[in-house]
């Protein structure tokens, strides 16, 4: 296990050479710091909360130069302290490490660093000099000794990485502050380019993303989180069509030989993302899809009032625009096998199968029901066909939806639009514990959905195969366990019957046709998901998998992230025969495993300004139709919202024994 020789973290000095202060410092509990990559020891680490050194021979002056140099490169230039301070300090440290006379001494550098920390307007300027100041305050004698003989300091290996809480929270690691900066600067086309580097479905994501980034946004400590999702939708809607195609065509690498082709199975978000990035890498891609349209669960599982299908089609069509092919009506195991694909010359196969098989409640008497009982997926498919004019589908009487996720919200809100007299949502835990996006819950409440929390179904009641009611029992929370999590248990004697004509089980999904897929040499785990390692490689060589079929039912942004990761792994498999080392991914691993991103509040005063919200149709009107509920914000509102971003960038830099292998971001 790597041992810190000396350093400072959150103001606490650690120096094993002087026994300061012992094992009570966070530096004593660092994880996964023995090597950065195989055989390459970590010698030092610099960050926004301090620094630590594993190898006493490390040059602090050289290490700090590279750290501040990255800050100077990334400074937006909006404020003088950061714009000028980073350059002046960088140049002074550069002179020192090269053995030349510096126009600034350490007193001058300390003064500039203090000014930057106290007066910069964003997180980058406020924090990029903290490690430098800690060195000057606590280890000044050491850096003065390094430069005393005016001899050049040997250059050190390493890398620097800039990130922000919102970036780290995003599964696709989108540079959120950067695309907001472009909106603020009046360059929405560049903002779209930032998004398209990660995935092609920006307008779709701007409508249905569950906003992990906003949950991590530091602005919430001031008033409300920045409307990152709202801004994403604005950019995508303003720059759609030809603009998106122009950017993606510019990103395409040199097309590979005709034989360099990959098969993608499933045209859902994971498959679309994988195909998109493979096309950008120059591969020839065919997407096999059992349905007659692309989009997967985004197509059949998200109602039009949240995601208009013309918007989805516009973004999935980019696969064809970039030279890929959709082969519809093709199902794995029924119309082709993986052996067939390899025999046809495909170099690799990606499984983006999703989870399109619903789960029943498993209640007494449910097998007797022939009418009025659906899984959430089956119900949403009927909704999709109704809206598309394929098969009319109407509801009457009371409808009960069981579940607390986004699928449950889609089901219960769709039931209202299909004519239900009353729509009820049953959830076994509290409202606050619902996994559904908070906005979806709030919108459902506006549409007069009746929420019944802390209760669960125990029995289906039917007559002649038709549902007439559902028996429920009330639940209560237990005392918190060791992890602090509360469970729930039924309260004896609270059983009661709720009359209804339709019951929808929106409690989970699983991979369809598992036995047929297993026959292709694909292993499943005990969660009944496809087994895949960190590089998304399956048990069968050359076959990769990602999205819901690997993780279980998740979110669109997680699926698209998996598609990007799989495309990189497939490229490595074909070009090198093994996954490459990605240094930025390794830095993220260190940051996340050690919780380096502090969950602190901004110290610089910020004027309160609450977020802009998407204009929405009146609840009484929208309950009668499937038209899109939320609308795009105006240019003026987008500019106002973009101004609220505090650019909470943080810098991290590592010094290693050897050079770090080059890989993708």
TrEMBL record:
TM region(s), chain numbering: none
Domain NADH-ubiquinone oxidoreductase 51kDa subunit iron-sulphur binding, chain residue ranges per copy: 61-106
Pfam families, alphabetized: Fer4_20, NADH_4Fe-4S, Pyr_redox_2
GO molecular function: 4 iron, 4 sulfur cluster binding; oxidoreductase activity
Matches recorded under InterPro entries: DPD_II, FAD/NAD-bd_sf, FAD/NAD-binding_dom, Helical_ferredxn, Nuop51_4Fe4S-bd, Nuop51_4Fe4S-bd_sf
SUPFAM superfamilies for this protein: alpha-helical ferredoxin, Nqo1C-terminal domain-like, Nucleotide-binding domain
Protein name: Formate dehydrogenase beta subunit
Native source species: Cohaesibacter marisflavi
